[in-house]
Each structure stands twice: as structure tokens, then as C-alpha cells.
Amino acid sequence: MPIAQDPLSVEVTLPREDVALLTVEGYLDVDTATEFQHHLANQLHHGRRHFLLDLSAVPFMDSSGMNIILRVYQEARELPGSVHIISPTPAVRRILDLTGVSITVPVSESADEALERVDRLPEAPDEPEA
């Protein structure tokens, strides 16, 4: 009989029109990664370009969770957009550091800090003026 696990909870808020803040709670692993991916895909579909991933309530993340973060990072870069990890728990931070994900995807201590990083990103080039 499998061990029951707390389901993943993902709350999506929109601090700005093109920014989605996803507050994740629970284990982000092979059993819950698909649900997380659906939330991200839905926000991409609705035109969000910047993704703030609050992982402060994620006690464990395996390679499935990391792969989804890296996948949305690649998709967001093509828009152009960005992905920011917010306040990961020590266990998750260790995994991000050991795998090098924290070198690729910026880690912030708060949503405000992540939004400041979004503001510092270069804007997408506009159409040239005649």
C-alpha cells in the first residue's frame, strides 16, 4: 500500500499583468510535477512572461521539479521573459546549488526582490522607428 503524501498546492497571483507569482506548497517530485507544469503552462498560455516561483513551503524537490523549472526557464527566455526562485527551503536550496540550477535561475529572498530583478532586465527590442 503506497504511503499517502500531502498533495501539492499551487497558488497563482498576478503582481503585474505579465508576471505570475506561483506559491508552491508540498513535495515537488515525480508524483506532483505534472500538476506544477500545468499551472506554469496555463500562465504561459495567458501571456505571462515572468515567473516568480515561491518555494518557501517546499520541503523536498527531486529532478522532476528541477526539470520543470529549467523547461519554463528556457521557454520564458525565448519570449523574452524570466524565471526567479524565491526563498527556497534549505533542502531545496542545497539541491539547486549542487545541480547548478541556482547559477542559471536567479534565487531571491522575497517576491519584492524578484520583482526588482525583473525591472532590471533589458526590455525586448521594439520595432525600429522610421
Q: Which regions are unreliable across 5 or more consecutive residues at pLDDT < 50?
A: 126-130
In DSSP terms (H or I, runs of 4 or more residues), the helix count works out at 5
What coarse outline follows from CA principal-axis ratios? globular
Give the integer mean of the pLDDT values.
Answer: 89
Secondary-structure-derived class: alpha/beta
Give a written overview of the molecule:
- This is Anti-sigma factor antagonist.
- Pfam families: STAS.
- InterPro entries: Anti-sigma_ant (IPR003658), STAS_dom (IPR002645), STAS_dom_sf (IPR036513).
- This protein is of the alpha/beta class and 130 residues long.
- 41% of the residues lie in helices and 23% in strands.
- Strands 1-2-3-4-5 form a 5-stranded mixed beta sheet.
- Helix 1 links the parallel strand 2 and strand 3.
- Helix 1 runs parallel beside helix 2.
- It starts with 8 loop residues before the first strand and ends in a 10-residue tail after the last helix.
- The C terminus is likely disordered.
Topology:
Layout: E1 9-16, E2 19-25, H1 33-45, E3 50-57, H2 63-78, E4 82-86, H3 90-99, H4 101-104, E5 107-108, H5 111-120
Parallel strand pairs: 2-3, 3-4, 4-5
Antiparallel strand pairs: 1-2
Helix pairs in contact: 1-2
Summary tags:
130 residues, alpha/beta, 5-stranded mixed sheet, 5 strands, 41% helix, globular, disordered C terminus
Give a concise summary:
By secondary structure, the protein is α/β, with parallel strands linked by helices. Helices cover 41% and strands 23% of the residues. The protein has five helices and five strands.
